[in-house]
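U., I forgot to send this yesterday:
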Amino acid sequence: MKIAIAGAGIGGLTAAMCLKRAGFAVEVFEAVNDPRPLGVGINIQAGAVRVLSSLGLEPALAASGIETRELRYASRHGQTIWADPRGRHAGLPWPQFSIHRGQLQMILLDAARGMLGEDRIGFGHRVAGFEQKGAKVVTHFVDRESASVAPAEADLLIGADGIHSAVRAQLYPNEGPPKWQGILMWRGVTVGKPFLGGNTMVQAGHHTQKFVCYPISRAHAERGEALINWICDLYMGEGTTPPREDWNRPGKLADFLPRYEGWQFGWLDVPEVIRSAHAIYEFPMVDRDPLPRWSHDRVTLLGDAAHPMYPIGSNGASQAILDGEAIAQELLTGDDPALALQRYEQRRLPPTAAIVQSNRKKGIDIMLDIVEQRAPQGFSDLQSVLPTDELERIVADYKKLAIQDRETLLEMAGLKMAGLEMAGLP
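Result:
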């Protein structure tokens, strides 16, 4: 069986490698002409690292990124609300990694080229449309250099071409632009001093004003520095989604830095981190409504093309990686490929749709808003502001929803608690 994948991002390349390992012929088509290590930081949850580890990529991830020890939620005064161990530090067999998105992209691309072959990943090929002809799917690609249109025939087409997916647009032509609820994000990367042990991810503030930061470079850590990925979220009010051409535009300090000038945490000087960035990018926090279905006969969606979500709980890339594993597992059954795609959809659409909806309601970040509402000037006793049982319920519910709880992760990996203990694992 031959499978065409539109999109050579994190989800598309992971799916390609999982499918190739399962014995399928795979060809990947990417709209970008020249893949480069662009972007800022990203987190890969332990459940997704499990998939990448099975593809032999954990050593490369560890050599580039930071193994995250802790996720800490704090008020806008820098007071700790919740500190959650991550990955192996939480007793899982796999780590969580914080890494530069561009480095992750290159790790995946190099590995995919090795598995699939150089000629199986084509760049500068934008999806112009597709048609299903019996048991085949013919996808028409526009060559960005020559502007010519060339058909590619396969048994299946997987649209992994991002939030502006051309495959999704053909399936749902009247959907319209992504949804925006008024939050703008400014992102940057700064070389600074290590904080909180040098391997902690921090989310501070509340829904209308939040600051997220975490180190993403092992090389910097080995030099006694921290390459800090940071994000500033500000609620700008309801309105029309900014034009697509304004996404990822250079950000201006004057537009957001004054709101953070007083954020001195002792363990981190937030305004100094922001001012020291070598570049700043601005873009809106957007998602799309969950779809009623992804799979249409021999065509389906994956990753951001299927379920773009707000970056709450570090789920976007991790869920795309889980998609890639799931679609390969369902196709391995050897029955009707269209039925396998339906099972993939039934397995992955409900949980990702639930995450999209939860993140719109602030997801696990709701704890930040609760503390801000109940103790806007700070607190001396967290228990009197957010009781432990209420806080633990928020965390447990979201972890279960996002497939980050230990029990579900071990079950997905076919591991049992007793088996882990017998093997000497934590």
